[in-house]
Amino acid sequence: MKVFRNYILIACALLSIVSCEEDEKLVQQVLDNFTSGTFLRTRAVAANPFNAFVPESPFSVTMEVQTADDQVVEAIDLYFSFQERQFDDGVDRSVADQLFTTFDPTTFGVSDRGLPEFTFDSTLGEISGFLGLTAADYTGGDAFTYRFEVRLTDGRTFSSSDVSGTTAGSTYYRSPYAYPVNVTCIPTGPVPGDYTLVMNDSYGDGWNGASI
Fold first, then answer.
1. What pTM was estimated for this model as a whole?
2. Which of 42, 98, 156, 190 is the most exposed place for a label (fewest CB within 10 A)?
3. Would you say the C-alpha torsion 56, 61, 62, 68 has a positive or negative sign?
4. Burial of residue 148 (number of CB atoms within 10 Å: 0-12, 13-18, 19+)
């Protein structure tokens, strides 16, 4: 009986070793596929959406740059794109990413947390003109997107395709890298007529008592 118990103890020990090795392999796989990135933390976003009737409609975003200890930001590129969602005439006027400008990190200010910070301001007329669009090319329901891409001195880049949903939409580390700005058709004066207001619950949990 004693010999039998010894066999059981040896078998349990071997199983523990195999289990530990499997756990270590799993942890190593996670670490091997984990990359520490650069955060463009959203500090403020103002004037969203655009009014299709007002080319001066503004959009502004303030971002704070935070990197890992061994990362150095070489530049931050800003791309504009347009997504047409109304195809009344059967023509898709969408425009893919176009590089608008490049920011030099040495020109950034300093946030109240001691990190690099910068603000970008623009208007509907500026972004649509850059993309070669006129007021007749967009209407309510369409959208323009501002996409930022961080370039590091080691050759790596980080943008909206590199972040998880948790990072992109979290309260503190909100770092989506991309900001879609919807276009609305808001009359600029007393225009008589009947209007239909279409409201959508994007989250899916109902209006929760909200009203307009």
1. 0.71
2. 190
3. negative
4. buried
Is the CB of residue 72 less than 8 Å from the CB of residue 127?
A: no
